[in-house]
Every structure is written in C-alpha cells, then in structure tokens.
Specification:
Number of domains: 1
Radius of gyration: 18 Å
Shape: globular
Structural class: alpha+beta
CATH superfamily: Rifampin ADP-ribosyltransferase domain
Helix content: 10-25%
Order of helices and strands: EEEHEEEEH
Largest sheet: 4 strands, antiparallel
Number of strands: 7
Length: about 150
C-alpha cells in the first residue's frame, strides 16, 4: 500500500475576518491605517481604526460616516493587537455584544460585502441626534485625541 508523503509545507491557520464600515473608496489589498481623518469628525485624526465581528455594527459605522461617498462594508483582517472599543464596551452595552474592536495597527482589506441593507433613514437621524446630544453634554469619545 502506497502512502502519500506528508507535505513539508504546513497548512496556513485560519485568520479571523472582520467588518469595517466607511464611505472611503478602497481596494482589496489596501491597508486601513490610523492617523487619518476620522469617519465621524473631519476636524480630528483617528488614533485608532475600528472593526467589528458583527455586520450590524459595521452597517452602523457606514450609516454614520461623514462624507459624500458611497457607504461601504469591507472585510478586513487585523495585522496587530485588537482591544475592545471603550465607547461601546461596558459603557453603552454590558460586555461587548457588538463585538466592536479598535487597533492602532493597520487592517488589510480582503474583500467587500456587496449586498447589505442600511438602517432606515429615520433610525440614522435619531442616532445622529443622540450622538449630537452627547457631544453637547460634553460626553467625549474615548477614541479621539485632541
């Protein structure tokens, strides 16, 4: 009985893929890096970039992004350490049910979700009003440095 020799090349481990919602027009293979204008405040640069393991959280990110570009959801892989997004984890929601994370290291775009449904315009407006109220009350994001 002939047996196949075991390949010297090891199988590549599975890499977790996450979602990133934005209005930026990017390509597969691009790196999303911190240090550029945030999706939510054009006056500030983002010290972190964000991703989520849930499609709904990425849809909210795309829905709430500023700018005039098309809303997009990219499939991304983290290239470094992730930590819970402190604006959501245990602040708005106990634990991290949205599975939202941030990193100071780039994400690599490996795909794009081509068919998805955004939230209803009235839901998006209500969320924007709530975020504006928090801002007026002096509640600051833990994700933006001045």
């Amino acid at each position: 009985m002939n047996k196949s020799p075991i390949s010297a090349r090891a199988a590549a481990p599975f890499v977790q893929t996450y979602f990133h919602g934005t209005k930026a027009d990017l390509q597969i293979g691009d790196l999303i890096k911190p240090g550029f204008q945030t999706n939510y405040d054009p006056q500030k640069n983002a010290p972190y970039i964000f991703l989520s393991a849930t499609l709904d959280a990425a849809i909210w990110a795309a829905d709430l992004s500023q700018g005039t570009g098309k809303e997009r959801i990219y499939l991304v892989e983290a290239t470094g350490r992730l930590e819970d997004d402190p604006d959501l984890t245990n602040k708005k929601f106990p634990g991290n049910p949205t599975q939202s994370y941030r990193s100071a290291e780039p994400f690599k775009i490996v795909g794009e979700v081509s068919h998805w449904q955004g939230h209803a315009p009235e839901q998006v407006e209500a969320m924007k009003e709530q975020l504006n109220k928090l801002s007026q009350q002096g509640v600051r994001s833990l994700n933006v440095r001045d």
